Amino acid sequence: QVQLVESGGGLVQPGGSLRLSCAASGFPLTYYAMGWFRQAPGKEREGVSCIESSGDTTYYADSVKGRFTISRDNVKSMVYLQMDNLQPEDAAVYYCSADLQRGECVRRGSNFAMDHWGVGTQVIVSS
After folding, report:
1. Residue partners of 21: CB distance under 8 A and separation at least 6
2. 65-98 pLDDT, tens per residue?
3. What are the helix (H) ranges across 5-107?
4. Which DSSP letter does residue 103 get?
């Protein structure tokens, strides 16, 4: 059974940092692209970042480029999202995702092609 469990969300002041973690189980992480999405109240889900199976190639939404860093540890079956210089507009529920069809990231408009999702972790950015 595929499971993606996010952790690391919380309350942070503007300009602060958080590191989200995603524990993946039920499939061999090594072969598949992984991603992070977010959804704020009243807004559509947005693809934040995607990392290909080897970890060598990454993609970011324009809104987070230069501030967020995605990484993965295929041995530990973990995916991370380091978020720096957080701003109020970054507040959302963040979801870990997996594309169990391929190892490369495939864009779908402003999103990435994914077929499994975690339940999400809340990020609040407020002073």
Report:
1. 6, 7, 8, 78, 79, 80
2. 999 999 999 999 999 999 999 999 999 999 999 9
3. none
4. S
